[in-house]
Write the structure tokens for this entry.
Amino acid sequence: MYSIALCDDEMEELNRTQESLHHYMRLHAISDFDIKKFENAEELLYVMRHKDYMPDILLLDIYMPEKLGTTLAKEIREMGSNSRIVFLTSSRDHALEAFRLEAAQYLVKPVVEKELFTVLDKCFRDLEEEAKKYLLFKVDGKIRRVPLADILYCEAQGKRQYIHLSDDTHLVLNMTMGEIGGLVLNYPEFTKVGISYIINMNHLDTLNAREAHLDNGHSIYLPRGSYGVLRENYFRYYCGGGGVELPE
């Protein structure tokens, strides 16, 4: 489900923008859409920081009494958010700052629906492409965007779960291995190895009955009975299972 947050100190503007979004949903037959409205910046920041709320798209007014929308966007970026930010404003005075904050668009009020819909089309196209390449994890209270290609393997050590990355760093996650698997095993390059490992086969260099050697020089000792399954999955991923046998 896609999530959109609206933040504007004027309720009339919030309702108008919400109605435009509902119109967009009807035209595009979109049902998996969640819209939340916020009348001030601090309320939005509180929900994002304390309730694990990370919207895909943010529609922000710039001129709000307690905090400028650009200041709000900067704080959101510092939280690690890669949300698409669209500024809705009555002035172009902050256009350059909006650009520096990687805003998806800067629309001047009164917003023309056609212009808003064009921006939404691009945001959703970008989100669909990005979803194929990145995963989001909560690390130390912040949302961390991790490229799939950077994940070497996932590991369970007792009650701790680790994501090992290609730059020789790792993330410690407050998730179960089953929850991690629910994310990464949707991608064909990842395969489960026993109960403690999930390996990115794009980083698998060589393989024998005891160890899997990764392309960064690290090795993983294979759990008993896991070699045959890993070998078969590795072969199927690269060769499509065309009847050729890997050497023992």
